[in-house]
Each structure stands twice: as C-alpha cells, then as structure tokens.
Amino acid sequence: MINQQLSGKEMFLPKSEIQSLIDLLRNDGFTVVGPTIDQEAIVYNEIASVDELPRGWTDRQEPGKYRLQKRGDDACFGFVVGPHSWKKYLFPPLTTVASAEKTEAGWQARTPEPDSTRFAFLGVRACELAAIGIQDRVFTEGTYVDPVYAARRRNAFIIAVNCTQAAPTCFCSSMNTGPRCTSGYDLALTELEDGFVIESGSKEGESLVAGLATQDLTSAQITKADSVRQQAVDQQTRHLDTEGIRDVLLTNLSHTRWEEIGDRCLGCTNCTMVCPTCFCSSVEEVADLSGETVERQRHWDSCFNLSFSYMSHGTTRDRISHRYRQWLTHKLASWHDQFDTSGCVGCGRCITWCPVGIDLTEEVAAIRGDGSASATGGAT
Hints:
The chain is of the alpha+beta class. The protein has two domains: 11-92 and 103-234, no CATH class; 245-280 and 304-368, no CATH class. The protein contains 13 helices and 15 strands. The strands form four sheets. It has a seven-stranded mixed β-sheet. It has a four-stranded antiparallel β-sheet with strand order 7-6-13-12, with no helix packed on it. It starts with 10 loop residues before the first strand and ends in a 12-residue tail after the last helix. The relative contact order is 0.16. Mean pLDDT is 93; it is low at 1-6 and 371-380.
C-alpha cells in the first residue's frame, strides 16, 4: 500500500506467530506471496503456511553461480535474494492491455478491468523496497500513469525483512539502499533465533500488529537485533564508486572496455530479467485461430534483444557491446536524467545470474580507470 511512513514501536513476535501473521492477511482477503523453494532456487510464490518458507536454507552466490545450502538452524529468512523480484507481481511478465472481438456490428474493442488482487508481499528486502520505489516513479509519478501497475501497487501490503547476511555479490551499501529497511513498508521484521523484532510502518501495519501476540522487547533482543543487522553491513565486500558516475560513463562511450565486455557477453538477457527495476516491454497483437478475437499483449522485453532497437532502417544496435553499453549507461547514468535516481539498487542479481559472471562493478571501475577492475569472473 502506498502509505505515509510511520515510526512504529518495535515489539517482539515469537516465531510461532508467523503463521498467525499469514492467517490474518489471508483472512483479510490478501493473497500472501513469499519466498519458497522451487527447482533448487528460492523464488517468490503464493504461500499459505509457514512450512512453505525456505526454513533452514541459505543461498551461496558468486558471479555466475547460485546454489542452495542447508543452514545450521531453522531460520525462515536466512538467505539473500533469488532470481525473482517483486516486479513479477506489480509489472507482470505478460499482460493483456486491450482486446477486440468481431461482432455483427463490427469490431468491438475493450480495455480489461485492472486486477483487483490484494497481494501481501512477505520477505521484501531493503534493496527491493528501493526497487519498488524506483518503479513507482517510472509507472505512477510521470505524465502517464500505467493503470496495470498503479492498481496492483495500490493494493499491495508489504512486510519487509531486514537482511542479517550479505552475499559476495551484494553492494546495496554503495547505492544507499540497504541493508536496513527504512521506509516503504507496512511492517518490517528482523529475524532472531526465537522470533522477530517487528515494527509497523503504516496505519494498516499497526492494525495488523494489534491482532498478533506480540511481547515487549528485552534489552538483550534489542542488542541482538542491532548486531545481526550490522552483520549484513560488515559482510559486504563488493562496492561501486558512484561519485560522478553519470559523467564517467557518458564521456567514455568509446572506451575499449565496451568491446571487451561484448566479447564475453552472451546477450542472453538474464541480467534484465532478474533486475528488479528494468521495465522494457514490447506489445504485439495475438489473434485466436478463428480470427474473431484479438488481444493486445504486453510482455517483458530486453535491450539485449537484437530486435529491440529495430526501426525502419534496420537494427540500431547490432553488436552485443553496443547493447551492453546501452543497458549499463541507461541503468547508471541517463536514468538519473529521466527519473532523478539511479536504476541500480545493488542487489547483485545481474552478477549472480550472468552465465559468464560479468560484474558491473568491475566494468565501471575499469571504465573509470582506477585500476581496481579485473575481468576474471566466470560461470561455475
């Protein structure tokens, strides 16, 4: 829900009460979406039980590598981020935006009603809150508002989870987007061994907390919560120097590094598909076999696709190096001109899920010329 942020009192929620939280949301008509395990990855899907959470599992991430691994405890949120982001539910991969049906009176066009599903997102990390904020700006704060996104965003209830660990691919500290959740949520949780520190961030969040069996926090729990949150800060080893980054990239469009990246990049679009802020899409008309009904469908697209920049004269960016340059300079440079913010939140997904392990922090450092870059990442 797009609400004014409050500074809620922190309380303690026993681990057994997480199921009560899920039940309250479902009883209130929300479809609860949270992390779960599917095909050896932690993904977001509809859940009804705490037993569907990836309890006791964590993820090991490196450039071009992602693996699940058992933990030594039964933590519900003891992992970082997987291949899914919440844009899957706010900006769906496939949407019918219009349709037309052939009748005796001629073609009748209609616009579908906005989706009225009330989603409750459980387990949203700080970098993902920042990504949702960026997409809010893209889809709802400009001259043209996207009705599909706006309706889904308006009905969303967000339960954030503060990170207590970081992957080697994380660099949210560099982007000032985490790892602590500071705004944009209805509730925020910090997981301890025996339960959660819970804080409300909206009036709706306060109302939900009132229905839970919370307890006052002890000084030991407060200290422990601060400690585990700081752990996610201390574990971050990857950094991106953002000082003057817009001008650094836009004044180096002929840098030799672009061709070096192009020689490695597969143009597979993985980075844009897992990115929580990328919003490129295409529209096509799809008719049924009878030719009596036509749907206009919007689907995710990528600036890495050869056809994406096709115009009447042909393809504008016919080399992978040019497409990578377009993606990186838009994400980190011209995005500031369009939306007054970076398009990167430091989640590291594009690094982990790149088959050849291309690391944008290394590439920016190489173009900047600070001597700290190397192109040694690879898939494992």
